[in-house]
Amino acid sequence: MTTITYPLSRIEGHARVVIDIHDDEVFRTDFQAMEMRGFSYYVQGIPAEQITVVVPRICGVCSTAHQVASVKALEDVFGVTPPPLAEEIREVLLLGQLIQNQATSLFIFTMPDRINAASIFEVAEPQKEKERQFSIAQAALRIRKIGTDMITLAGGQFIHPIKTTIGGVTSGIPREKADAMIKTIDSLLPVAQELVDIYWEMSMEMGDRIGSWGDDAPTYYLASTEADNFRLNSKRLRLMSPEGREVHNFSPHEFESYLQIEDSDYSYASSSSFQGEIMRANSLARINLANSMGTPKADTFLKRFVETFGRPAHAIMFFDLCRGIELVYALEKSRQMLEKDLEHGETEVGYTPRDGVGYGLVEAPRGPLIHHYQVEDGLIKNANFIIPTVHNMLAIRRALMVVAKRYVSAEGINSELERAVGRVVRAFDPCIACATK
Amino acid sequence: MEQKKELPKFAVLQLSGCSGCEVSLLNAQEWIEDFDLVYMPLVVSSHKIPEDVEVLLVTGGVRTDEDIHNLAKGASRAKKVIAVGTCALSGGVAQVSETHPARDTYMLSSHRLRLPDMLPHAYPIDRFVPVDIYLPGCPPTPQLFMTALTNSENAKIASIVCQECGRQKLQDMRPTSITGMRSGVVLPDICLVNQGYVCVGTSTRGGCGALCTRPGHPCVGCRGPANPYLNKEPEFVLDNLRRVFTRMTDIPEGEINAVLESPWLSLFLDQFTDYTQDDSLPLRTKEKMI
Lengths: 437, 290
Fold this sequence. Notes:
- The complex is a heterodimer.
- By secondary structure, chain A is of the alpha+beta class.
- Chain A has a single domain, classed as Cytochrome-c3 Hydrogenase, chain B (Orthogonal Bundle).
- Chain A is built from 13 helices and 16 strands.
- In chain B, 53% of the residues are buried.
- Helix content of chain B is 28%, strand content 12%.
- Chain B is globular and about 60 Å long.
- Chain B has nine helices and seven strands.
- Chain B has two domains: 148 residues, NADH:ubiquinone oxidoreductase-like, 20kDa subunit (Rossmann fold, 3-Layer(aba) Sandwich), CATH 3.40.50; 115 residues, no CATH class.
- The interface between A and B is large, with 73 and 66 residues.
């Protein structure tokens, strides 16, 4: 038996891929999370109201989603309804995170695969290519920074944000700061569109070179955005069948009836399924489940994607293309929202703590995220984090099996396998820190 | 042929953490032109730290046997080691509720086939390797990263968070209980302690720009103790906070004590001070702190 281990880079956290081969036959592929964060254990016993400061630290990349989900779960326990203005500001915050995350995944994590480089910061000769790539990298970092600045604007902090608190948000967004952000978006939206187009072209070339966009079979899709409203501060989850029918629509309170979560012997991350069936979450799931984005330019990009690849679209590399649609959407949508008055009016309401059970749902960049708490005597008795990456774990393993079979034969192991493994994992943009509860 | 200027080699080793420090570093884009980034798996496909690294940033705490190995190897190849973020300085958020019975369940659950084993504790990195500069924060801001990388000798850091906060401390606004978020109101421009919030900005190292307190969230102490409290026992820091609350509020002593000992603050406060209980660790002088 031969075991090949591929350490992974350009993903969030520590993970590796292990492929077991016997007699030229691939018989096992693992995607292993290498450390266990352990939050669901060590938040037990802490005062419930303090958990919102602790749980963003599950992950510095996804801290915004965790903070908002955490606050929503406690609002559910305490029976508090935040004012509408707070809900709007939280949406801007989540859009900021989507911009930051999709720009990172597209340009820092996956673009190097399309140009065969180790990173976007270093590109081999010729000089002309180098200069072009350098200007792409500069532009990409500027787009990414819009997301970071938007998180700061709506969340206070740029990582582990603090403005969202039980009952609302601590303060609004001042007009002058909103205007400055609108100005930045106006100047950089065309740049973002151009980058997404460049990315699309690079992906087409890569698809031709490899001869495949990913041969894996269709799966179920899970998202909490609505068909005609891409709100990330979401309320319900939807499940689409491999044929493209919406088969379930459920509230976070009911998640256990639909999502089965299991521990693994070979990874610190768990995996979830829909009644034993493989699911996919993240960008491709949201786009498959969307009728329209609701903003003009993003809708143009959506139309191109659907006309080119159909709906539902299933190939693994489509995840990356869908991130481009979402990046343009998030820039357009946040601009629209910042035009409203987010400074004046009630931003928060008071509350009285009580014991009970609560659920907080948001659509994180990687898919639906649920925080589920049980509060007893004012303390966290149990905390359960339903992590988007966990929904993709079975799909990642199977996709790895498909590429391993593609590149392992009686002639040997094709050297393309290592690159293919990286491309497949990065398409799912897994977050390992989050995935290990 | 044009001679290319040799830039100092720069590596980022991530142990067990949340990647927040790396994300913050990416936001401080200026270093990209001053350094040759040779190792940072989050953004570069490289799996080995080269031999002659000028600066090694270490983020995350030591939580697995593999972390110890990677840290020792990385540090031996670098001229200068910078410990970045609360986890590298004190083990970090993984220490919350360390004494709770759930910790035992966690240890029992944290073994897997073919994978690194989790250690019973998250250790600061200077327990294993010498550290030249400490950069606390959860995460440190991009500006602080730039200071650590380019100007650590002449760094001018605000002594405490209050210096940069801009909220006014009032004599005649004395809360009688800790209402905190429950009130649903944060008045702008007035000190959060005056408003009944548990804010520990008075003892916490500045330099962060008071990012949390200015929009209305109390400081939770992520930058650790200010210079006068470095290497001091937990009681020393807590006494100082008690004095602040006694001077500025009419909150009963019992209520103040209860909240000062709560996990919210232990997330950072206890960790940085717990550190002083371990004799095997080197002292942290203020010259080494950013």
